[in-house]
Structure formats: C-alpha cells, structure tokens
Amino acid sequence: MSKRTKFLLGIGVIAALVIGWQVAAFAVHDTGKFELDGDATNQAAKAGDDWDNVCRQVTGTNCSTTTGAPDATATEWVAEPNLDSTIFTGGGSKDPIDISSWNWKNGAGGLPAKDNLLHSFAARYTTAQNEQVLFFGSDRWDNSGDATQGFWFFQNPIARNTPNASSGTFSGVHRNGDLLVLTDFSNGGGTSTINVYEWDTSCPSKANNNPQPGQCGDTNLMTLATSNAANCASAAAGDDFCGIVNSGTITMPWSFTDKSGTSGNQALNGEFFEGGLNLTALGLGDRCFSSVASESRASTSTDATLKDFVLGGFGSCGSSVTTQQQGPASKSIGTGSISVTDNTTVTVTGVTNWTGTVQFSLKQSPNGTPENIGGPVTVSNSTSTVTSPAATVTAAGDYCWSAKFTSGTTGVPDAVDNSGAAECFTVTPVTPQLATTAGPDVNLGSPVTDTATLTGTANKPGTTSGQPDAINPTTPGGPAGGTITFRLFGPSDAGCGPLVFTSNPVAVSGDSAPNSPYGPVSFTPTLPGTYHWVATYSGDPPNTNGTDHNLTCSDANEDVVVKSVPSTMSTAQSFIPNDSATVSATEGGPLAGTVEFKLFESADCSGNAILTQQKAVSGGSPQTVSTTNTTVSTTAANVSWLVSYDSTNDAQRDIPATCLEKTALSINNDGTVSSPPL
C-alpha cells in the first residue's frame, strides 16, 4: 500500500464520498485567488484572477487585459494550432497505461466536434492559509452534447516526440503521484461529476465497480476523491474540488470561433469548462507538476478511449543550493585547530511547500576528497537557510564547502552546490616569535653562549588511524617540530662581520617552556672584540612558518664582548752593595793576611749575613782590597758590614771583626700601573 493510500485511509475519507475532503480553510471556489464562475474574463467585482490574466501572463499578448497573473506559482495556456492538431490514436493511449505506450497523430477525421479541444489552461496558487490550490480548464469547438474531460498533471516533463511530424509518440513517463482529474458535465452544466486519481504503480487493477477513496480505481490509478455534486455554483461550503461550465453565451478573452461560427469570440453554453482543486486538502500540496495535458474522453470510465488532447508545460519545479562559508575568507590556524561552519540556502521554484535535507561536505582544495560533516540537516520552505555542524580543521591550506540538497518533495529535484569562491576559505599558518638571550661578556679564552625562546607555534595536523587528516581527525596533532640554528658573527663594531660559528640544529618541540629556553649553545672565540648572535627557526609546515631573529645584528641584547686579559706592573728598587778595606802596619815588614767581609740587611750587623767574601792582603803597607759582589742584591733601606783582618805576619797583630760601616737609604717606589682599558 502506498503512503498516499495509508494517508487516505488513515483520515477516514470513506465516509465523505459525496462532499470530498473537508479540511481546507476555504472552499476551492472561494479562496480569493481565482474566479470559478463559468466565464474566462476577470470581473472587477470579484476577487482573484481569471483565465484572461493567465493568458496574458503566459503569452504576453493582450488576451483582453493588460494584467497578468504574477501571484501564480505555475501557469499554462496553450492554443491548438488548428482543428486537426494532436489527437490520440492506438489502443495503448489510455489513462491506466504509461505514457511510453501512448501515440498521437494530426487529423481530426472521425473525431466528434464536441470532443475537439481548442485551448487548455491551468494555474497554481498559494492561499493566505498557505494551501496549494490548482485551477484548470479548456474550451471546445462544439457544444452539441455532453462531454467528458480529463486533466493530467505530470511531475516529469512530458512532450510529443518529433512535434513537427504528422504522428508520433511521447517522451517522458509517469511518476507515482501524477494527478488525474476526470470531469463529466452536462451541456447545461447542472450536473458535474469529478473523480480524482493519482498514478500509483501498486494498483494492479480496479478494486470494484465503485472504487472508493483509498481503493484502486484501475491499474496504476489510485482513487483519491469523488463527487457527483461538484458544480462550483452549487457546491457545499468547504468543497475541495469543483467544476463549472458556462451556462450561457460568454465572450472569450482570446480568439475563439466555434463550429457554429459565432462571431465576436463568443462561446455558447457548455463550450467552456473550468475547475479547481485544493491540493493541500487532498494531501498533494508538496507535489510539483511539470506538464499539463487536457484530454477529451469517450466516458468517465478510467479505461475510456482518449480522443483529443492539448499538452503544455506548467513551470517545472527547480531547486538550487547556495552556500556561504562563515567568517573571514582567511583564517589563522591558531594553536593548531580551528572550528569552521557553512551556511546553505536552498531555493525551490514551482512549489511553495517543500522539505528535504542538506548534507554538508568539506574538502581540502584542490584535490582533496570531500568529507561529510555531520549528518543530513533538515531544511524546508519555512527554514530554507541552515547551518552546518562545526568541522575541526587541523592543517593550513585551502578548503571548500559543498552542500547537497536531497528533496523530500515529489517533483522537486535534488541540487548540489560545490563551486564558487563564497564556499572556499584559506587557513593560514602562524609565524611564531623567536627571542634570544646572549650570555655575559667574557675574557678571551672563555666561551660565549646563547639561548632562544620560541612562542606562538601551532600543533601539527591531526591524524586518523595514524594517517594525516586535516578535517575532523580522531587524534589531535602533536607540538610543532623543526630546529633552531644559532650563528655567531664578529668581531665587528658595525654590522655582523664574518661568520665564525654555526651550531648544530637544536630540536624543537612546540613552544619553549617557561624558564627553559632552547640551548644554550657555546663557542670560544680566538680574538677579542664584539660578537653578534643570530638565530633561525626552520618552521614545521604546514601549520608553523619559520622565522629569524637579529639577521641584521642590530639587537644589542644579542651582542657579547670578548675582552683581552688586563696586565699590571709594580716597581721595586734593589741594590748590589760592595765594600773595601785598607790595611796598614808601620813596622814589622810587608803585610800578609786575609780581610773577611760580611754583609747584613740591618743597621747593626745583626741577623744572617747575606754575603761573605775573603780577600787576601800582601805587600807593602798599606794595601786596599774590595769585595767583588755582582749577584747578591738587596732592597733593604739599611745595610751594615762586619769586617775583620786575620794577619799571617807574626810581627803584625789581627784586627777583630768590627761593625764599622753602615748605610741608610731612602727608597721611593711609585707603586703599581695597569694596562689601559679596551
């Protein structure tokens, strides 16, 4: 059983066979949208459009009015080129049989004049109560007898193959939910029977000779509603469908000449028919119809022989999707991940009420695979703009949203939007901050040092099952990698000077921890002077750029001075003392013996002698001998000599050691001097 059948049975329509469906806010002939009054010309005193407005809307020609029907959501007005145009032919051209078996030809030979249709027209509106109402009609060449007509509303586009030929088949096929309205009205219009069916391939055959709503009216035809009191002029209040013919001669708003040759575009009694149907009341408000066929038939039987037809388009439903990524078109990756969303607006034409879902997808451009973001989001005519679930992006790069609209309304096609700059955005990498701190100035021969503080890096892209995954990964990315290389230039007082040292790369793992910079690195210069440290971070694509610090060697905080060692000098005078002694004797012959000299660093010959020398004496008196000191020096201010004579001439006596000579000096040393500063 189809959904439509369940719907019909579920609301108990069997009890309402003769009055149709009683759920509309207004009777179909009293919606204020259209005049169902048995003529085709708009009456100023009545509310709503009429067929002259529809004619004007479709053709753009006068149609006896300059006003169209802009409130109509779909319109059809088709004129047969001539009386011999397009009649059904062949036994397969019947309503329970699919269109692929229908055949047509030109040539009305044998066609009763009362069944020869001249014009077909239809219009669809949305009422103030948001109900979908459908109006349809036709005029015929002759009124000599009652006539049965059918009106097919097709969801798929239906057309004649080779329309310029004299015969042919049809393109397009039925779709479950196509609507068939069969009308039977007397020439005077007093009696009007209307039966409403929908194409339903679950129907194998007619349920019985009097099928009720919810029962199969024939093969492929499900009965929706029926009434034998469906004259719009006398229909009960709240009717959901009705029909009416002109009860007297009326003036048609377009060129019209009947079989009688009545002048002035006059249509005689019963040559004009119009009807209306509340789609919403019948549960068909969500249907979108692409084509309309008006047909004349042998009887109201569902399998009656089809005779003449007029086929036209009815403003097919369309859908489109427009997406707009949210936020700026360029976004920073931040700390390694950002949340992004998309807005999508679905536009549906040809029908007012519609539903469906939107599936959002996101891909890394240009060659990434789209990934569904969340599940389908419900969308409808009341909420046509929806926002996607948030997606987490963990890699810098270009991204584009796409959105697929899946229609939940019969006749409304699906739509996809996956192109256009508005859907795309760029995630940019971060450039971190690199600050370095040189060690203190040193003396030549000691090493100089440098450290680096790195902040503002972004984590690596996330992964799923161990593989890089930029969109909604299951595992977040780790800290940024890369290396920092330190270089030392100098010595130079202006500019960088020569490169004297390049460190081994220092591995990076994200931002440096507080009080724990990267490094230190060290180098011992061989020359004094001012040196300059420069640091370079390699970066970790795609999320973290590389950066440098002090490339111009202008950061004074990165200067270090290597100093030469200072020298000092102090002076102290020293003396090398010598002494002499003259020995004489007046008697006793020549002198013979030894003089002994002892030198003391004191004024009274106390202490230990610092020099002792003995000098021989011989010869006639007197004799002088001297010390020969060249190595023993003193810095003492007072010195004294202890001198004795040991005679070897018995005639002459010894002279005992006597402290006779004393020297007192005034020594003035100037102190210590240092090398001048660098």
Apparent shape:
rod-shaped
The portion of residues assigned to helices is: under 10%
Q: From the alpha-carbon coordinates, what is the Rg to the nearest angstrom?
A: 60 Å
Low-confidence parts? 1-25
Going across the major beta sheet, what is the strand order? 11-12-10-9-6-17-18
* Total domain modules: 4
Per DSSP E runs of 2 or more residues, the count of β-strands stands at 50
Number of helices: 2
What does the model show?
By secondary structure, the chain is mainly β. 3% of the residues lie in helices and 40% in strands. The protein has two helices and 50 strands. A seven-stranded antiparallel sheet has the order 11-12-10-9-6-17-18, with no helix packed on it. Strands 20, 23, 24, 25, 28, 29 and 30 form a seven-stranded mixed sheet that branches. Strands 32, 36, 37, 38, 40, 41 and 42 form a seven-stranded mixed sheet that branches. It starts with a helix and ends with a strand. Mean pLDDT is 90; it is low at 1-25.
